[in-house]
Amino acid sequence: VMTCSALNLEDIDTIWDMITQYCSEALENGCYATKRADQNRDWMHQLVNQMLLLKLEQNTEIAAILPQLESDVAKQRSTPYSAARKIIEKL
Question: pLDDT of 36-57, one tens digit each?
């Protein structure tokens, strides 16, 4: 941990040197590429989830059955799994 102050212009160069050293080492040992690949994979999964939710929201057939499914789950007339399967089957 290091401290600096932009207001007082203290140790900014030291912090910047530490950052550039870290970046150089991460590039040299492959850590940067590994982290970037992990981030890209995670981003892909987030995008898939968002796109699926959007597709669900835009599906009129699902919109029509959703209130009843939610009610059935809340009143324990259906399991969450069963309701989810019915929704997925409509995609």
Answer: 999 999 999 999 999 999 999 9
Task: Find residue 10's DSSP bridge partners.
Answer: 5
For every residue of 54-88, DSSP letters joined together read: HHHHH-HHHHHHHHHHHHHHHTTSS-HHHHHHHHH
Rounded distance between C-alpha atoms, residue 57 and residue 78, angstroms: 21
Closest CA to 88 of 64, 55, 50: 55
Phi-psi region of 11 (alpha: psi -120 to 50; beta: other; left: phi over 0): left
- pTM of the predicted structure, to 2 decimals: 0.62
Give the phi and the psi of residue 9 in degrees, each rounded to 5: 55, 45
